[in-house]
């Protein structure tokens, strides 16, 4: 406190003694800040001790008490505001209150020139004001932090909107691309499979774009993974075009293939009698309108071979193919004679080639596991298991026949489609080509639908064919 601010000293001896005691401490000594409760207790104690003093003493005491109360209030407000960052505006009010407290303290100091307790009370008020100011600064900092958080959240929300918009645009682009590639057009190649997934049709066209009056020439290549008697393919004439021609041999819905035709049908048995399981068909149409997609779809149905295709009646046992077979002992001894190779054209490479054309994905299991296991590693198409041997009759009292040891007609050796014990494909008492087609068709068209893939053959049941492809019933 400098000379201009110090009040004139009183002549009261007691006041003089107290003043002398209070002037011993250096002016620049760092002050400690008592809590609001300590300040309040100090003021109350001074009131009790000097309550009988009159005049300016009471004025100083009252003013200082008000200052202390204001400081106490500021501290309380600061405490409340500091615990609620969302209400940081209280910091501003606390700061204003603290400034008011400081002014009150200076008034109290001036008024204390006539009192002996004024300086002590003033000190308490000033300290309370300083606490309030410190709290106000903390609250101001909290307010700034809250503002920064709000700004950060606002910025994040703004970026979130942009990100959402970008994601939406990307999804639209992907959807458009998927839709584009799924659309069948004149420049696309089409692949269609029938319900059993054994027939494949691959279609192509000679032009990417066409004008009115142009001819679009389609080529359809088909193939079957099983032996078939026939494959029929039907193609609906695309909208915006008219029929021109189809080949090699085709039929149309109105009986005559002309511009009025709405659909065209081909038969592999008619066009390719020697190889009904694969071939090529053609279709030509003329475009009638501009600015449109030409969508052309073909559907096909494969009719599995019943065994009649390629069937050759049994030859007598005397026809042993130059001593290739011995019909007097196992495995070739059987009631029919040379039923498995009546034309003497069986070879193991021929068997492998036939399986490759009918069921290539399972060539290994047929050729390397099932056939050698069923024939005792002899690969004889005339193999026969006597129904009286090793409980064979518990499986089929007609015995087990051929390369794949399957059933027989009743009596054995009847021309297909005479059925065996389990249907038309359960026939091994036929020539080796039909034996092979029957085994593959029975596995793919009968057992597979029953979830019993390969389970007819002991090789699968004994674990020689793993699961998958084998499926236990």
Explain what this protein looks like in three dimensions:
- This protein has 473 residues and is α+β, with helices and mostly antiparallel strands.
- The protein folds into three domains: 13-19 and 30-150, no CATH class; 190-304, Sandwich (Immunoglobulin-like), CATH 2.60.40; 309-473, no CATH class.
- The protein is 39% helix and 14% strand.
- It contains ten helices and eleven strands.
- It has helices spanning 13-22, 36-50, 56-82, 90-111, 118-182, 268-271, 348-358, 363-374, 432-447, 458-461, and strands spanning 190-193, 199-205, 215-224, 228-236, 241-247, 250-252, 263-267, 278-287, 298-304, 384-385, 400-401.
- The chain has a five-stranded antiparallel beta sheet, with no helix packed on it.
- A hairpin with a 5-residue loop joins β1 (190-193) and β2.
- α3 runs parallel beside α5 (118-182) and α7 (348-358) packs parallel to α9 (432-447).
- It is flat, with a radius of gyration of 53 Å.
- 35% of the residues are buried.
- Mean pLDDT is 75; it is low at 1-31, 50-61, 81-89, 111-118 and 184-196.
SSE map:
Layout: H1 13-22, H2 36-50, H3 56-82, H4 90-111, H5 118-182, E1 190-193, E2 199-205, E3 215-224, E4 228-236, E5 241-247, E6 250-252, E7 263-267, H6 268-271, E8 278-287, E9 298-304, H7 348-358, H8 363-374, E10 384-385, E11 400-401, H9 432-447, H10 458-461
Antiparallel strand pairs: 1-2, 2-3, 3-8, 4-7, 4-9, 5-8, 6-7, 10-11
Helix pairs in contact: 2-3, 2-5, 3-4, 3-5, 4-5, 7-9
């Amino acid at each position: 406190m400098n000379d201009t601010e110090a009040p004139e000293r009183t002549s009261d001896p007691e006041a003089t003694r107290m003043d002398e005691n209070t002037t011993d401490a250096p002016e620049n000594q760092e002050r400690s800040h008592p809590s609001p409760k300590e300040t309040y207790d100090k003021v109350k104690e001074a009131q009790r001790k000097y309550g009988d003093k009159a005049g300016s003493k009471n004025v100083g005491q009252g003013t200082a008490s008000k200052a202390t109360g204001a400081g106490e209030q500021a501290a309380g407000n600061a405490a409340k505001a500091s615990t609620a960052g969302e209400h940081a505006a209280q910091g501003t009010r606390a700061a204003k209150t603290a400034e008011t407290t400081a002014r009150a303290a200076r008034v109290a100091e001036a008024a204390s020139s006539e009192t002996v307790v004024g300086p002590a009370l003033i000190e308490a008020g000033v300290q309370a004001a300083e606490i309030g100011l410190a709290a106000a600064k903390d609250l101001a900092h909290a307010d700034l932090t809250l503002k920064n958080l709000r700004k950060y959240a606002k910025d994040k929300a703004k970026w979130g909107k942009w990100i959402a918009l970008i994601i939406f645009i990307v999804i639209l682009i992907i959807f458009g691309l998927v839709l584009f590639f799924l659309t069948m057009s004149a420049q696309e190649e089409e692949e269609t499979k029938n319900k059993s997934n054994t027939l494949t049709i691959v279609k192509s066209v000679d032009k990417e774009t066409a004008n009115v009056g142009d001819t679009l020439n389609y080529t359809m290549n088909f193939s079957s993974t099983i032996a078939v008697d026939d494959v029929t393919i039907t193609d609906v004439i695309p909208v915006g075009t008219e029929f021109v021609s189809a080949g090699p041999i085709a039929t149309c819905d109105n009986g005559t293939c002309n511009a009025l035709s709405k659909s065209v049908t081909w038969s592999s048995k008619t066009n390719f009698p020697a190889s009904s399981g694969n071939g090529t068909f053609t279709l030509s149409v003329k475009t009638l309108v501009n600015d449109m997609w030409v969508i052309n779809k073909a559907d096909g149905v494969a009719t599995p071979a019943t065994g009649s295709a390629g069937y050759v009646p049994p030859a007598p046992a005397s026809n042993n193919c130059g001593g290739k077979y011995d019909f007097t002992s196992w495995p070739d001894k059987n009631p029919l004679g040379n039923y498995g190779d009546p034309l003497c054209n069986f070879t193991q490479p021929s068997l492998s080639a036939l399986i490759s054309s009918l069921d290539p994905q399972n060539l290994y299991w047929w050729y390397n596991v099932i056939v050698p296991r069923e024939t005792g590693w002899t690969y004889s198409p005339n193999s026969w298991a006597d129904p009286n041997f090793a409980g064979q009759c518990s499986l089929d009292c007609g015995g087990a026949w051929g390369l794949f040891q399957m059933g027989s007609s009743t009596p054995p050796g009847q021309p297909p489609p005479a059925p065996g014990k389990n249907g038309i494909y359960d026939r091994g008492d036929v020539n080796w080509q039909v034996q092979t087609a029957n085994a593959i068709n029975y596995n793919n068209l009968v057992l597979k639908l029953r979830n019993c893939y390969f389970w007819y053959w002991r090789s699968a049941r004994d674990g020689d064919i793993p699961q998958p492809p084998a499926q236990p019933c």
